[in-house]
Structures are given as structure tokens and as C-alpha cells.
Specification:
It is a single chain. This protein is α+β, with helices and mostly antiparallel strands and 125 residues long. It is 16% helix and 66% strand. It contains one helix and five strands; from the N terminus they run αβββββ. The protein has one helix spanning 2-21; strands at 23-25, 33-48, 54-74, 77-95, 99-121. A five-stranded antiparallel sheet has the order 1-2-5-3-4. A hairpin with a 2-residue loop joins strand 3 and strand 4. The protein is elongated, with a radius of gyration of 17 Å.
Length: 125
């Protein structure tokens, strides 16, 4: 009984924290990320070399509220940008050249689940 009470108390504390400050649980690109009223930004460095000319970013999920912005930056300047809200499943292609890039995921008051995956690849139109 005591364990159940402690578990209930921990869950209530987690709910209170998520409602007040926001919460994100997961780690892209390997795991889906669950958001609860989360506002924030994550940046992932990507090095492109060889014959690649497109960075494919697969974004799928559902946001019950809020929005997601996916942007690719090179030297601090945006190469491309997309915004998602509601239910979505899309592969976004950003043109790239050899060099270092940053994939930026920005969320505003997001509540839902999103799965990300990205890979540089050769694109044949």
C-alpha cells in the first residue's frame, strides 16, 4: 500500500511539473519524443561529406496543441525550414553541399508525440 501511495505521489508530481514547466521525454533519432506543454529548442550537428546532395528528415507524429519547426542551418543561416502542427507524416528534403550543418528542432507549447529520423543521401529527381 505504501509503495502504491509513493507511486501515485510521484506521478502527481510529474504531472504538476509537466503542466507548469513542460516536459519532453525521448531522444531522436532513435526513440520517439513525447511532449507535454513543452517549449524549447534542440540542435543536432550534422557533417555532410562525399556525394550527398540532400539531407532527408523524416518527421511523423501528432501534436494535439502547439507546433514544431524543423530547420537546417549552415553557418547560422537557414538552408530550409518547415513548420508542422496537428497530425503529420512527411519526408522533408534539404539541399546540402559538403560541410557542417545544424538541424534545429524548435517547439512551441507542444503536446503530443513526434518521431524524427535524418540521413544525408543522394537524390535523383
Amino acid at each position: 500500500m505504501r509503495s502504491l501511495l509513493l507511486l501515485l505521489l510521484a506521478l502527481l508530481g510529474l504531472y504538476w511539473y509537466a503542466e507548469r514547466y513542460g516536459l519532453a521525454v525521448g531522444y531522436p533519432p532513435f526513440l520517439p519524443v513525447f511532449y507535454w506543454k513543452y517549449t524549447g529548442e534542440a540542435q543536432y550537428p550534422i557533417r555532410v561529406h562525399g556525394l550527398y546532395n540532400v539531407l532527408k528528415v523524416q518527421v511523423s507524429g501528432r501534436l494535439d496543441q502547439g507546433r514544431l519547426q524543423v530547420a537546417l542551418l549552415k553557418d547560422g543561416r537557414p538552408v530550409g525550414e518547415r513548420t508542422f502542427a496537428g497530425a503529420f507524416q512527411e519526408v522533408v528534403r534539404f539541399p546540402v553541399e559538403e560541410g557542417d550543418y545544424v538541424l534545429r528542432l524548435r517547439l512551441e507549447n507542444a503536446k503530443g508525440q513526434v518521431r524524427y529520423d535524418w540521413v544525408p543521401t543522394k537524390f535523383a529527381p
